[in-house]
Write a structure and sequence with these properties.
The complex is a heterodimer of chains A (469) and B (1022). With 469 residues, chain A is mainly α. Chain A contains 15 helices and no strands. The two termini of chain A are 21 Å apart.
C-alpha cells in the first residue's frame, strides 16, 4: 500500500487510513526504528540541536552552582512575591509531563490504537519533563542542603513533616508520578530493548542493551506477564494523570491568597497540563519524525488527532479563565474582584494577555482542518501554546502574590538573569535528554505498533481496514 | 613595621595572646623597633637581627589587641553581681545638642546591647526614638576612628598631649589671641565649667559654637521679644489646642519623645465622651506632625509669618489684647488661605486660653518666634503649657560666631583651631568657604569620632568616644542634670571632649571621671558626696535639678519693627521680590534619621524608611504633584536644583499634600567620608546651603536632567484601595457611632475552624497586643527598637529595592482623602494600569505599625511542609529556625506579609566588632530561613521567670516587647489576654478595637484601636 492510496486524514470512519503507512511489514518496522539507533551517525540536525541544548544545560548547572553558593537572593524573589520563576517552571514542567501519561495510559485503556506511534516518545518526554520539574522545588528552598526535612523519615527529633501542607502532598504526588511513569516507560520498552540487544553489532551494545532488556526472550509466558503488568500499570497511571496536577494546583488552591484560593484549580490545572503536554509532544515529534524518517509511523493523522485534543483542552482552559472572573464577581469579595481585574489590567497585564492570546485564541485555529494538517504551521502554534502555558503559571503565581491583601506590601517582581538563565537551562536539560533518548533508545514502541497492523490481525476481525476495535 | 593596635585586618594574632605579657614585660617592643630600624644599618649583627625577628614575631600578635592587656582577666574571681547570661542595667545619658536623653542601657557580660529610655527622665520618660535606639550600633561601628593621627601618621594620645603642651606655650604668651575653638552646642555642667576655664586661661581666644541644624532662631526670637534667650519647654500634655507652624515637634525636633508623649496624653481616649486635643498644622512639607494633624494647611514656609499675622489679627478681632503694636492691624496678605481655617484656629485658641500652644519651627525667622512668644503670652499659655528656662551650662549655636571665625581665619588672625566634635568642613554654610580657609591655619586639632571630612583636613586628629564609653554630664531641656555613665571602656582608645578640654585647659591628662566628679562635687556638696553621687548614677539624673520656670517680660517696642517684617513673602531669607518671582522655594530639613549627617554611618538609620516617603538610603527633593507637573518631573527623575548660582542634582519624589511651589530637601546625606555605610549615600545639600538662609529661601529653579535614579522605598502603594485597613472616624462621628470600627468590613461572621486548636486558648497566659492608631504618630521608633533587640540585619539599598528589607515590625503609611475630594491624577508606578489611586490635593495620612499578627488560625503554619512555624501553648506563632528549610510558602500565605526571608547570609560577613552589638538572647539567623516578629519571646520568658520566682502570675509590667517599651506615645500594649486586669484585655474590649483582615478568619492576636481625629466642627469635611 502506498501513501497516496489513502486520504490519511479522512474524517470518514469507513475510509480511515491505516496507522502505519508505507509498505511496511514486521521486519521493516523493526529495521526502521532500530535503524535510528544503529546508524553510525545521527543526522546533522541532531548534532546542532544537541550542541545548543547541552550548552543551555551547562548554563543551568553553572547558574545552579552560583545559586547554591550565594543564596536564593540571586533570583528576583522578594517580599511579597516569595515564589518566582522556580515554582512557575516547576508547575510548567509537571504540566508538560501529563500528555505522556495520558497517551500511554488513558488512551491505552480506551484502546486508542493511534497512540502506539507516539506513546514511547511522549512517555520519554514525561520522564524528562518531570526531571526538570523536580529540580526546581528541590533547589528553590532557602537551605537547599536539607530538602529531606520534607520526607517523613524516622529521626531522632521525633518530628513528622506537616501533613497539612500542600507542599508535602506535592512531594508524594510528584514522587509517585515520577516513579510510576519511569517504571511504565521502562517496562513498555523491554521487548524493544531486547530487539536492540539481538540486533547489536558491538560488544558494548550487547552488554548495555542486554542488561536493560533484563533477559527478555519473547516467550508466550513473557508476553502474557508483560501485557498483564502493562495493563495494571496503565490502570495505576491513569488516576495519576488527574491527581498529580490536582495536587500541584492545591499548592495554590489551599492557600488563603486571592487569585490562588479557588476551587476551580484542580480541573483547570489538569486540562491545562494536558493542553501543554500535547503541545510539547507535537513540538518534539514534528521535527523528530522528519529527521529520523519516521513519517510512516507518526503520520499526519497522529498529529491531527493531537491538534484536536489541543483544541479541546485549550477551550476548557479558556472557559476556566472566564469562570474565574465570574466567580470573583459572584463572590462579592472586593479583594477577590480586585485581584482578577488587576491580573488583566494591572501591572502584569502584558503577561495576562500573552497568556490569553496563546492559550485561548491560538488553539482556536485548529478548528480549521487545513491548519491541523499543515505540519509546520501546527508546530509554530504548538510552540505558542507552550509559551502561553508558561505565562499562565507566571500570571497565577506572580500577579496574585504581588498585589494581595494589604496595599502597603505590594511590589513588582522582576526576574534576574539567573531566573531567565535557569528557565532556558531547564529547556536545555529537557531537550538534551530527549535528543539522547532519540539517539539511544527506540523512539517508537515497535512491538505495539506491529499489533495495529493488518498483518497482526490475520483473521480479519476488523471489518474494514484500520478501523479501531 | 606596621603596628595598628586597633585594626583587625590582620587575622592572625589571636594565638599569641598568652605571650603578650612576656612581650610587654620585656620592655616596649616599639621602642626596640625604633632603636633598631628594620632597614639594616651597616654592621648589623646576627644577634641583633635575631632579636629583631623575635620581636617582630611577638608583635604580630599585637595586631588584634583591642583592650589593654591588664584588663584581660579570667573570671577566677568573678566581679561582684555579674552573672553570665543575666543582663545588668545602667542609667546613662545621651547628649544631642542642647538635648539630653536619660537612658537605661542593658549590658550583657560587659557589653551594652540595648538602649531604653529612663522612666525618671523628663526627656525620655522611659521611651525613646529611632535615633536613640540606633546609638548602640554607632558604638560598635568598625569605621570609627581608631587612632590619634598627626598629618596622617599614627600617634598616641600621649604624643598629642605632649604636642599640645608645647603648642600652648605660644598661645599662653598672647593670651590665646590666635587660638580658636569650634565646638558643637552642648548643655553640660562639666563642659561649661571647662569652657570657662579655657576662656580664663586664654582670655583672647575665640570659642565658637556651631550646629548646622539648631534652634538658634528660637533663641534669637526670644532675645528679640524678651531681651534674653531662654529655652522653651513645651507641655503638650496640658494643651487642648496646638497650632504648629512649620514645626515638626513630633519627629524632627530633638525633644520629640517628650513632645509625642505629651501630645498622645491629650489625644488618647477611652470612649467618645473623652476630650481630645486638636492639632492645627501649617507647613510646607508633609511632616509627621502634619500627618497627625486634625487640620493641616499646606503653605510655603515663607508665608508662615503672614499666616501668623492673620491669626493674630483674628485673635485681636475676637477680643484678645495683643501687646505688639501694629501686629494685628496689618493685612495678612494671604488671599488663598481659607478664612474659616484662621477663624477656627483663633477661636479655638481663644476659647482655650492657657491651654493652647503655638509652636513655630526652628527654621522660621526670629521675628516669627518673637511673635509666637507674644501670642502665647497674650493667650496665657506661658507658664502653663509652655515654660521658659534659663540656658544654664549651655553653649548655643551662633551662626554669626562662625561667620566671624571664618573672617578671622581669612584675615590671618587665627593660627590654631581646635574643632571639638562637629564636622564643619561638611556642614558649614557653603558660602563661608570654611574648608578653603582652613588651609591658612598653622595647626588644626580635631576631636571627632570618625575620620570624616573635617578630620581629613586636620593636622591632629584625636578619636572621640561614644557616649557609652566615657564619663560626662548633661542638662536636659528644662534643666534636669544627669551624668553620662559609660558602660564599656573605649573600644578604640578614644578620648572624650571632657578629657580633651581637660588637657586644653592645662588641667593635665586626667580621666574624664575625675573632671565630671569635680563638677558634681560643686553641685552635690562635699559632705555626703559619694552617697548622693551614687544616687545620681542610679537614678540617671539628679532629683530636683530642673530649673525653675521664668516668666520672660515682653518688650513690645523692640518687637513691633521685627514683626512688621513678617509679611514679607519669603520671611527671613527674603531676596529681591522681583528675583523671587516665578522661582520656587527651597526648604532645608534636618533628617529624622541621620540628623545633620552625624549618624550617616549607622545602617539602621539609613535603612529606616522615611516616615512620610518610605524611602531608605537616599534623600530626595520632595514636591507637590502640581509643582512636579509644572516642572515636568516625575518620581525618580533626577532634577537639577539651581539655587544662588550653585547646583546639585537630586532625585524627585512627589508627595501629595506638599505645598505648591516649594521643594523640600533633607540635609545630612552625600557624605564623602562617613564610613563604609554612609559614604555617597544620597546627595549633600549643604553644598547649596548658605549662612544667610539656612532654613528656607526663594530663588530655586528646577531643571529636569533627563536622568532617572532608582530609589529604594519600602512601600510603593499609598492608597488603601477602599479596604478597611486603617479605620478612622471623627470624634463627633465616634460619639454618635461608638461601634464605627465594627462596621467597616464585609460581614462573613466568625468562620469555622478547619483544624482543632492545639490548646485551649482560654487557659494560661495567652499573649496579645493592641495598637492604638489614634495615638500612634508613625515615628518609626519601634522599628529600630525591634532591630536592636532582635538582631535584625540590614540589607542595603539594592536589596531594599528588591523588597527584601528585614524589619520585623513595619509602619505602613496610607494617604486618605476627605470624602468630598476627587482624585486628580494617577499614582506613581501604576501608569496604564488598573490601580489608579487618585491623588488628592489635600490628603491626610494614617499610620499602622504591623508586627506579626500571631493569628490563632495562622495561615503560615498550615502550609509549612516541615512544621517549622507553629503555635506554642501561649498563643504565639513561633519560628523554629533549625527546622525551616526556606520554602517561603508561609510568606506567600501570610495575608499581612510580615514574614522576612534571609535571601542571603546577611550576618556572616558582619565585622567582628558589630557582632558585639547583638543580643545574646536572640538567635542570629543564617541564610535561607524565614524569620519574623516573636513578640520578643526572650522578654516573655524573662518576665515569666521573674513572676515564677516571685510566686505569682505574670503582670503587664513583667513583659514589654521592645516596640512597646520604646513607643513614645504608648500606643502599643502587650499582655495576657486571659488576665482581666491587663491593659491589653481592656483595650480589646474597647469598642474601637478591630482585627485587621478579620474577615478572612485569621483571628489575629494583634488588634487595632481605630483612629479618631478631632476636627473643628466648622471645618468638617476639609
Amino acid at each position: 500500500m502506498s501513501v497516496e492510496a489513502f486520504n490519511v486524514t479522512s474524517d470518514d470512519p469507513t475510509r480511515r487510513a491505516p496507522l502505519v503507512l508505507g509498505d511496511h511489514d514486521f521486519e521493516s518496522i523493526t529495521d526502521t526504528v532500530c535503524g535510528v539507533v544503529e546508524k553510525p551517525k545521527p543526522p546533522v540536525a541532531w548534532y546542532i540541536a544537541f550542541t545548543i541544548s547541552s550548552l543551555f544545560a551547562l548554563l543551568f548547572f553553572v547558574l545552579l552552582a552560583y545559586l547554591f553558593g550565594v543564596g536564593i537572593g540571586v533570583w528576583g524573589v522578594q517580599n511579597p512575591v516569595g515564589w518566582g520563576f522556580a515554582i512557575v517552571n516547576f508547575v510548567f514542567w509537571v504540566g508538560i509531563g501529563h500528555a505522556g501519561t495520558l497517551i500511554s495510559a488513558i488512551l491505552f485503556l480506551f484502546r486508542q490504537k493511534w497512540r502506539t506511534g507516539i506513546n514511547r516518545a511522549a512517555e520519554a518526554m514525561t520522564i524528562f519533563a518531570v526531571i526538570c520539574a523536580l529540580i526546581f522545588p528541590a533547589i528553590h528552598i532557602g537551605r537547599w542542603w536539607m530538602p529531606y526535612y520534607m520526607i517523613p523519615y524516622p529521626n531522632q527529633m521525633g518530628m513528622w513533616p506537616n501533613f497539612r501542607s500542600p507542599l508535602l502532598w506535592d512531594v508524594f504526588a510528584v514522587g509517585t508520578y515520577f516513579t510510576v511513569s519511569l517504571v511504565f516507560w521502562y517496562m513498555g520498552m523491554i521487548p524493544d530493548l531486547a530487539s536492540l540487544r539481538d540486533r547489536a553489532q558491538t560488544r558494548t551494545r550487547q552488554v548495555i542493551y542486554g542488561i536493560l532488556a533484563v533477559g527478555w526472550r519473547g516467550s508466550q509466558r513473557h508476553w502474557h506477564r508483560y501485557e498483564r503488568a502493562y495493563l495494571l500499570l496503565a490502570a495505576l497511571a491513569t488516576p495519576l494523570v488527574l491527581s498529580v496536577h490536582s495536587v500541584v494546583s492545591m499548592d495554590f488552591a489551599v492557600s488563603i491568597l486571592p487569585g490562588w484560593h479557588t476551587t476551580i484549580f484542580p480541573p483547570y490545572f489538569v486540562a491545562g497540563a494536558i493542553f501543554s503536554g500535547f503541545a510539547m509532544v507535537a513540538t518534539l515529534l514534528i521535527p523528530a519524525r522528519q529527521w529520523f524518517g519516521l513519517k510512516d509511523f507518526i503520520t499526519l493523522r497522529h498529529l491531527e488527532n493531537m491538534a484536536k485534543i489541543i483544541l479541546a483542552t485549550g477551550s476548557i482552559v479558556g472557559y476556566a479563565y472566564s469562570v474565574e472572573f465570574f466567580m470573583a464577581w459572584y463572590s462579592g469579595s472586593a479583594i477577590e474582584q480586585f485581584t482578577f481585574l488587576n491580573r488583566s489590567l494591572g501591572p502584569y497585564m502584558w503577561a495576562y494577555w500573552i497568556m490569553v492570546f496563546c492559550n485561548v485564541v491560538v488553539p482556536q485555529a485548529f478548528w480549521i482542518k487545513r491548519i491541523r494538517c499543515n505540519v509546520w504551521l501546527m508546530w509554530c502554534l504548538c510552540i505558542l501554546v507552550n509559551v502561553g502555558m508558561w505565562f499562565e503559571r507566571f500570571v497565577i503565581v506572580v500577579s496574585s502574590l504581588a498585589n494581595d491583601f494589604l496595599p502597603s506590601s505590594w511590589d513588582y517582581y522582576t526576574p534576574t538573569f539567573v531566573d531567565l538563565g535557569m528557565l532556558a537551562g531547564s529547556f536545555g536539560i529537557f531537550f538534551s535528554l530527549f535528543l539522547l533518548f532519540c539517539r539511544y533508545l527506540p523512539m517508537i514502541a515497535i512491538a505495539e505498533v506491529k499489533r495495529t497492523m493488518p498483518q497482526a490481525d490475520p483473521h480479519y476481525h476488523s471489518a474494514a481496514i484500520g478501523v479501531e476495535d | 613595621m606596621n603596628i595598628k593596635p586597633g585594626t583587625e585586618k590582620n587575622g592572625q594574632g589571636r594565638n599569641y595572646w598568652r605571650s603578650l605579657e612576656h612581650v610587654q614585660d620585656n620592655g616596649d617592643p616599639r621602642e626596640f623597633i625604633s632603636e633598631n630600624p628594620s632597614e639594616l644599618p651597616e654592621g648589623f649583627s646576627r644577634r641583633g637581627m635575631l632579636k629583631l625577628m623575635a620581636a617582630s614575631v611577638s608583635l604580630a600578635g599585637l595586631t588584634a589587641c583591642r583592650r589593654p592587656v591588664e584588663t584581660i582577666v579570667p573570671y577566677v574571681i568573678p566581679p561582684e553581681q555579674v552573672l553570665p547570661g543575666v543582663p545588668r542595667y545602667y542609667a546613662t545619658t545621651m547628649p544631642l545638642g542642647l538635648s539630653a536623653y536619660g537612658l537605661i542601657v542593658e549590658s550583657h557580660e560587659g557589653r551594652p546591647i540595648k538602649i531604653e529610655g529612663n522612666p525618671r527622665h523628663p526627656s525620655t520618660l522611659g521611651a525613646s526614638s529611632a535615633m536613640i535606639q540606633a546609638a548602640i550600633l554607632g558604638l560598635y561601628d568598625p569605621d570609627r576612628s581608631q587612632s590619634v593621627l598627626h598629618d596622617g601618621e599614627e600617634k598616641t594620645w600621649a604624643d598629642f598631649v605632649e604636642a599640645w603642651q608645647s603648642l600652648e606655650q605660644t598661645h599662653l604668651e598672647d593670651q590665646g589671641a590666635g587660638l580658636a575653638l569650634l565646638s558643637e552646642s552642648f548643655s553640660s555642667p562639666t563642659l561649661a565649667r571647662l569652657k570657662s576655664a579655657f576662656l580664663l586661661r586664654f582670655p583672647r581666644a575665640r570659642w565658637v559654637t556651631y550646629e548646622p541644624a539648631s534652634a538658634e532662631n528660637v533663641f534669637d526670637g526670644l532675645e528679640l521679644a524678651a531681651g534674653q534667650a531662654y529655652q522653651p519647654a513645651y507641655r503638650f500634655g496640658r494643651a487642648n489646642i496646638i497650632l504648629s507652624l512649620d514645626a515638626d515637634f513630633l519627629l524632627s525636633d530633638t525633644e520629640n519623645v517628650a513632645h509625642a508623649r505629651g501630645f498622645a496624653e491629650g489625644r488618647s481616649i477611652q470612649s467618645g465622651n473623652d476630650s481630645m486635643n486638636r492639632l492645627y498644622v501649617a507647613e510646607s512639607a508633609f511632616s509627621l506632625t502634619g500627618a497627625n494633624a486634625d487640620h493641616r494647611l499646606r503653605i510655603q514656609s515663607g508665608r508662615i509669618g503672614g499666616l501668623l499675622v492673620a491669626v493674630a489679627a483674628e485673635l485681636e478681632r475676637l477680643g484678645l489684647d495683643i501687646t505688639i503694636p501694629g501686629m494685628a492691624t496689618r493685612d495678612s496678605g494671604l488671599p488663598d488661605v481659607d478664612p474659616k481655617w484662621i477663624q477656627a484656629v483663633a477661636g479655638d485658641l481663644l476659647a482655650n486660653r492657657g491651654e493652647g500652644i503655638i509652636v513655630a519651627g526652628d527654621r522660621q525667622a526670629p521675628a516669627v518666634h518673637a511673635a509666637v512668644f507674644a501670642l502665647n503670652k497674650a493667650l496665657g499659655n506661658v507658664d502653663s503649657t509652655i515654660t521658659y528656662h534659663d540656658l544654664k551650662d549651655a553653649s548655643i549655636s551662633r551662626r554669626k560666631e562662625l561667620i566671624d571665625l571664618v573672617a578671622a581665619m581669612e584675615g590671618g588672625a587665627v593660627s590654631t583651631l581646635i574643632v571639638l566634635g562637629g564636622n564643619p568642613v561638611y556642614n558649614a554654610p557653603i558660602d563661608l568657604r570654611f574648608a578653603e580657609h582652613l588651609s591658612k591655619l598653622n595647626t588644626i586639632i580635631r576631636l571627632g569620632p570618625y575620620m570624616d571630612e573635617t578630620a581629613g583636613l586636620a593636622h591632629w586628629h584625636v578619636p572621640e568616644t561614644h557616649f557609652l564609653e566615657a564619663w560626662g554630664d548633661a542638662r536636659a531641656v528644662g534643666g534636669t542634670a544627669s551624668v553620662i555613665q559609660p558602660l564599656i571602656l573605649p573600644l578604640f582608645g578614644a578620648h572624650s571632649a571632657v578629657e580633651m578640654l581637660g588637657v586644653l585647659t592645662g588641667g593635665g591628662d586626667l580621666p574624664g571621671y575625675d573632671h565630671v566628679r569635680a563638677t558634681w562635687k560643686e553641685t552635690l556638696g562635699q559632705g555626703d558626696f559619694e552617697k548622693r553621687w551614687r544616687r545620681v548614677l542610679h537614678d540617671g539624673l539628679l532629683q530636683g535639678s530642673e530649673l525653675p520656670p521664668v516668666d520672660p517680660a515682653l518688650r513690645p517696642s523692640a518687637l513691633s519693627d521685627a514683626v512688621m517684617a513678617l509679611q514679607e513673602p519669603a520671611g527671613a531669607g527674603a531676596r529681591d521680590a522681583a528675583e523671587a518671582k516665578g522661582s520656587l522655594e527651597i526648604v532645608f530639613h534636618r533628617s529624622p534619621a541621620v540628623f545633620d549627617g552625624r549618624f550617616a554611618n549607622n545602617g539602621w538609620l539609613q535603612e529606616l524608611p522615611d516616615a512620610i516617603t518610605k524611602i531608605t538610603w537616599d534623600n530626595v527633593a520632595v514636591m507637590s504633584p502640581k509643582t512636579a507637573r509644572e516642572q515636568g518631573l516625575r518620581n525618580e527623575d533626577v532634577a537639577r536644583l539651581r539655587y544662588r548660582d550653585r547646583v546639585v542634582e537630586l532625585p524627585v519624589w512627589v508627595v501629595p499634600g506638599h505645598a505648591d511651589g516649594t521643594v523640600s530637601v533633607t540635609l545630612g546625606y552625600g557624605r564623602r567620608s562617613a564610613g563604609r555605610v554612609g559614604n555617597d549615600v544620597g546627595v549633600d545639600l549643604y553644598a547649596i546651603r548658605t549662612a544667610e538662609a539656612p532654613g528656607f529661601d526663594n530663588g530655586l529653579s528646577l531643571e529636569p536632567t533627563g536622568k532617572t535614579y532608582p530609589l529604594a522605598g519600602t512601600q510603593d502603594h499609598g492608597s488603601m484601595e477602599g479596604r478597611p485597613i486603617v479605620r478612622e472616624a471623627s470624634l463627633e462621628h465616634y460619639k454618635e457611632h461608638p461601634d464605627f470600627a465594627q462596621h467597616a468590613e464585609a460581614h462573613f461572621g466568625p468562620g469555622e475552624k478547619l483544624f482543632k486548636d492545639p490548646v485551649n486558648w482560654g487557659e494560661g497566659n495567652q499573649w496579645g497586643m493592641t495598637i492604638d492608631l489614634s495615638t500612634c504618630t508613625g515615628c518609626n521608633a519601634c522599628m529600630v527598637a525591634c532591630q536592636s533587640e532582635n538582631n535584625v540585619p540590614i540589607v542595603g539599598k539594592a536589596q531594599v529595592e528588591e523588597g527584601r528589607e528585614m524589619h520585623w515590625i513595619r509602619v505602613d503609611r496610607y494617604f486618605t482623602s476627605p470624602a468630598s475630594e476627587e482624585g486628580t491624577e494617577s499614582a506613581h508606578g501604576s501608569e496604564g494600569s488598573l490601580i489608579r489611586d487618585p491623588i488628592p490635593e489635600e490628603p491626610q495620612m494614617v499610620f499602622q505599625p504591623l508586627p506579626c499578627q500571631h493569628c490563632e488560625t495562622a495561615p503560615c503554619e498550615q502550609v509549612c511542609p516541615t512544621a517549622a512555624t507553629l503555635h506554642d501553648r501561649e498563643g504565639l506563632n513561633v519560628m523554629v529556625y533549625n527546622r525551616c528549610i526556606g520554602t517561603r510558602y508561609c510568606l506567600n500565605n501570610c495575608p499581612y506579609k510580615v514574614r522576612r526571608f534571609n535571601y542571603f547570609n546577611l550576618t556572616k560577613h558582619l565585622p567582628e566588632v558589630m557582632k558585639l552589638a547583638q543580643n545574646p538572647d536572640v538567635t542570629v539567623r543564617s541564610r535561607g530561613v524565614m524569620e519574623k516578629c516573636t513578640f520578643c519571646l526572650q522578654r516573655i520568658n524573662a518576665g515569666k521567670k521573674k513572676a515564677k520566682r516571685e510566686g505569682r502570675q505574670v503582670r503587664d509590667a513583667d513583659v514589654q516587647p521592645a516596640c512597646q517599651q520604646t513607643c513614645p506615645v504608648g500606643a502599643i500594649r502587650f499582655g495576657n489576654i486571659n488576665d482581666p486586669a491587663s491593659l491589653v484585655t481592656q483595650n480589646k474590649q474597647n469598642e474601637r478595637n478591630y482585627d485587621l483582615l478579620g474577615e478572612i478568619n485569621t483571628r489575629p492576636r494583634v488588634s487595632y484601636l481605630a483612629k479618631v481625629r478631632n476636627p473643628h466642627p466648622d471645618l468638617a469635611g476639609a
